[in-house]
Structure prediction request, 409 residues.
Amino acid sequence: MSLCEKHAPYTLNAMIGNRLARDRLAQFGIDALGAKRTAAIMIYGPSGTGKTSAAHAIAYSNGFELIELNASDYRDSETLSKRVLPLAATRGLFSKKCLILFDEIDELSRLDTGSEKVILKLVKESRHPIILIANDYWNKKVAFLRDSVERLEFKRPDSEEVKSFLKRIASEEKKEVSDEILAEIAKRSNGDVRGALNDLEMMMGARPELLEFLGLRDRKAEIFKVLDKIFFSSDFDMARNAVSTSDVDLDMMFNWIGQNIPNKFLSKSSIFEAYENLSRASMFNEKASRKSYYGYLRYASVLMSSGVSLSSNGNVSRLTPYAFPSRISKMSKTKKSRESLNAIALKLSVSLHANRKTIINDHLPVFNMMINKAIEAYGAEAVQEFMEMKYKLEKEEVAIIAAYSRFSS
Prediction:
């Protein structure tokens, strides 16, 4: 179980930040318990600020039966009319009140035909409380609701609040994480509590230098939400737009998707098809770089997003947390050795008249064999003196070439 799932708040008091907004929601829950009807509320604000968690907390603490529809569900008029509209004038299971939750209401897709009319009817007539969640209240897709709902903004908590929260979670998990790392995660999260928790989970037991790969979360769509839309959505446009509106570069996204395909897809055929589409995305990505024609990136983006998403047969794991890309972790571990190889290649390029990549991949294996044979014949000191005189290589650099393996670097 991920930290986000394990430490999901069951009450509004367990959340951080947005005190006034949480007080209003607490009153909303009380009113809904006693009144026949309450005005629907639209909670809006940046990703990761606790909008959905707050709605879940209201349902749990007031004993509401939760009826939730998010962007990965079909929300067309027929589905809503059959599944949700009958609840408008009836009691829930065991005569309990329901809380009807529309998550990501500002992301109704082109497949959600006729949904606006049904949702508006629910908002105006339902005897059950309704909460709608959006990132952007001013998105034109929710314009039809603005005159019929109360709006409630969730803002980003400050970094000190996030740091204190992370410190408490680390303590509960019995993990030692330095104040410096906690402060850096809180700063980089930019008020995204869910993102901060995911970063904390990655950094538990990891070296501090891995922080550089977390990046700032001031994005249109942060990476975990993008991955959710790729792995849990069956909508072509939603998956494609998740990548195209994200500020995460394609290479980073490629690594995240490739690492998590076998974690999320449970069907072998889905895994095979997803990797096949990802390999085609890699091909177009490489072509764009090699030919300097970046129109190919459009194909790469679609294949790694919609291509992977539509590979799913619906058998997807929601419990397995996202894994940090092992390739990125390995790149961090080998950073110093790669820097040394680049410095060596730069010196050798004067004599070999080749680029850095060619020297590392093609020439250094030959140098490795020649140096080791020469050491056996003439001794290490003589070889080092020759390499210094001929190629300006220092003693440590000759030792690196002698130990070089193309497959370990």
About this structure: Residues 268-291 form the longest helix (24 residues). Strands lie at 41-44, 65-69, 98-102, 130-134, 150-153.
